[in-house]
From TrEMBL:
Annotated positions binding Zn(2+) 1: E121
Residues the record lists as binding Zn(2+) 3: D164
Name used for this protein in its record: Extracellular ligand-binding receptor
Pfam families reported in the protein's UniProt record: Peripla_BP_6
Length: 449
C-alpha cells in the first residue's frame, strides 16, 4: 500500500505543528542516498499509512497555528492557494523527501501559511522513488487537484520523467532536491517554468576541487564514486574544476551501490594514488558512505593518501556513524548547522524547536529554501497565483540572505546561485562530530563547472 500523508496522519506525526517529527536527516544529492543510514540516528516514526494505491485524493493540509508562526492560515478567508508537494516519502530514498518536507513546511509556516488573505493548502503526494508513480502523481496534482504550483521532486530519474508534463502544463515548479544536471544546465531541458533551489549534481563539490588545488596544493588526484548517474556527474564536476585549475586526474574508480567490502576498490585506489596526491570520493549520505570512509581508515589509507569526500558523505546526519574516520576531512557543502551567522542560528533554533534532538542537514536546508522562495514570490504578488506571468517574474526576482548565505536564481539556468561552505570535520568538547566552516565561496552557480 502506498503512503499518502493525510491530515490526521500529518498532525499525528507533528504533534499538531507543521514539519515532521524526529526523522533521520539524510541528504546529498537526490540520488546520492542509495540507502539511508541504518543506525546511530533518530529512528523514524511509524509510517503514516491509510493512503490508497488507486489514485484517490490525498487530503490537503492547511497549517494549524504553531509557535513562532505568523498569522495562522485559519484567519484567511480567500480562495486557497493550492501547492502540490511531490516527494519520495517512502522506500530507501524516503529520508530525503521527509527532510525536504520538514524544511518546506517550516518556511511556509513562518510566513503564516497565507498570502493576500488566501490560505495555503499543501497537497502532498508520495512518488515512492518510482518515475512511473511520479508521473501519475504529477498528473493528478495538475488535472485533479488543479494546483497552482508544484514543489519537491526528490530523484533525478523522477525529474527527467515529469519534466515534459510540467512544462507542457505550464506549471511553475520549485525543485527542492533532484540534482539532474541537464534540468537547468542544458538549454534543451531548462524551462521558464522550472526553478531549482538545491543544486545541480556536483555544484557544492566542485569548489572543493579549487580548494584542493589552490589551498592544499594537490596537483594529481584519483576520483572515486558510486557507479550510478549522480556519481558520474559528481566526478565530472570535480574533474572539470580541478583540470581548469591546472590539475590532472590520473584515474577513476567506481563501485556498485550497496558494496559491503570496499577492499578491492581500495586496492585500486591505492595503486592509482601512487601517482597522485589525493583522492576525491562520493557515495552520498548513505550507509555506503559510512562503510567506505570507515574502511578507508581501516585499510590504512587515511594517513597516507589524503581524502576529500563529498559534503554529502560527511553530512551531519551520518557523522556519528563515521566517527573518527571523518576527523580532519575537508569537503564542500550547501549547509552545515555550525555555520556561524545570525540567519543560520535562527534557522537552527526554529528547526530544533520542532525536531528535538536533531540538527538540520542538507535536505532540510534545501526544503527550507524552497519554502522561503515560494513565500517571497507569493508575498510579492499578494497571493494572486492565477497571474502566472507575474508569479514567474516574482520567482525570478527572489533574493534573500538565508542560513548558508545569499540566495538567488541564475537568470539563464534558473538554478541556485548560493554560498558554498567548505568545512572540516572536528570533534567538539562534548564529543560531537561537527562540520566547521573553514571557507565560504559566495555566489556559486550551477553553470560554474
Amino acid at each position: 500500500m502506498e503512503r499518502l500523508i493525510r491530515r490526521r496522519d500529518f498532525l499525528r506525526l507533528t504533534g499538531g505543528a507543521l514539519g515532521l517529527s524526529a526523522l533521520l536527516t539524510a541528504c546529498g544529492g537526490e540520488d546520492s542516498t542509495p540507502t539511508p543510514a541504518d543506525s546511530g540516528s533518530p529512528s523514524p516514526p511509524p509510517a503514516a499509512s491509510g493512503g490508497t494505491s488507486d489514485g484517490s485524493a490525498a487530503s490537503p493540509i492547511t497549517s494549524p497555528t504553531t509557535a513562532g508562526a505568523a498569522t495562522p492560515a485559519s484567519s484567511a478567508s480567500g480562495e486557497p492557494i493550492r501547492i502540490g508537494v511531490l516527494l519520495t516519502l517512502s522506500g530507501p530514498q524516503g529520508v530525503n523527501g521527509e527532510g525536504n518536507l520538514r524544511g518546506l513546511t517550516l518556511a511556509l509556516d513562518q510566513a503564516g501559511m497565507q498570502f493576500g488573505g488566501r490560505p495555503v493548502e499543501l497537497i502532498i503526494e508520495d512518488s515512492a522513488g518510482q518515475p512511473e508513480q511520479a508521473i501519475t502523481k504529477t498528473r493528478q496534482l495538475i488535472e485533479r487537484d488543479r494546483v497552482h504550483l508544484i514543489a519537491g521532486i526528490t530523484l533525478s530519474n523522477e525529474a527527467a520523467a515529469v519534466r515534459d508534463i510540467l512544462v507542457q502544463a505550464e506549471m511553475p515548479t520549485i525543485v527542492t532536491n533532484a540534482g539532474l544536471q541537464a534540468l537547468t544546465r542544458d538549454p534543451a531541458m531548462r524551462s521558464p517554468y522550472l526553478f531549482r533551489v538545491s543544486f545541480a549534481n556536483g555544484q557544492y563539490d566542485a569548489p572543493a576541487a579549487d580548494y584542493a588545488y589552490e589551498t592544499l596544493g594537490y596537483r594529481r588526484m584519483v576520483l572515486h564514486a558510486a557507479d550510478y548517474a549522480a556519481g558520474h556527474e559528481e566526478m565530472a564536476a570535480f574533474r572539470s574544476r580541478f583540470e581548469q585549475a591546472g590539475g590532472e586526474i590520473v584515474d577513476e574508480v567506481v563501485a556498485p551501490i550497496g558494496t559491503q567490502d570496499f577492499g578491492p576498490y581500495l586496492q585500486r585506489i591505492e595503486q592509482a594514488a601512487a601517482e597522485a596526491d589525493a583522492v576525491f570520493a562520493f557515495h552520498g549520505t548513505s550507509t555506503d558512505a559510512i562503510r567506505f570512509l570507515v574502511q578507508y581508515q581501516e585499510f590504512g589509507l587515511k594517513d597516507s593518501i589524503p581524502l576529500i569526500p563529498s559534503g554529502a558523505d560527511v553530512d551531519q546526519s551520518i557523522l556519528p556513524e563515521i566517527g573518527d574516520a571523518a576527523l580532519g576531512l575537508v569537503s564542500g557543502t550547501l549547509y552545515t548547522a555550525y555555520n556561524d551567522t545570525p540567519e543560520s542560528q535562527e534557522f537552527v533554533e526554529a528547526f530544533t524547536a520542532r525536531h528535538e534532538g536533531i540538527l538540520p542537514g542538507l535536505v532540510d536546508y534545501a526544503g527550507y529554501i524552497g519554502g522561503r522562495v515560494i513565500a517571497e514570490a507569493l508575498t510579492a504578488i499578494d497571493g494572486e497565483v492565477e497571474n502566472k506571468e507575474a508569479l514567474l517574474e516574482a520567482l525570478k526576482a527572489v533574493e534573500f540572505t538565508g542560513p548558508a548565505g545569499n540566495f538567488r536564481f541564475h537568470p539563464e539556468s534558473q538554478g541556485p546561485v548560493t554560498t558554498i561552505l567548505l568545512c572540516r570535520v572536528e570533534q567538539l568538547d562534548d564529543g560531537t562530530y561537527a562540520n566547521i566552516v573553514v571557507d565560504r565561496i559566495p555566489d556559486f552557480d550551477d553553470l560554474s563547472f
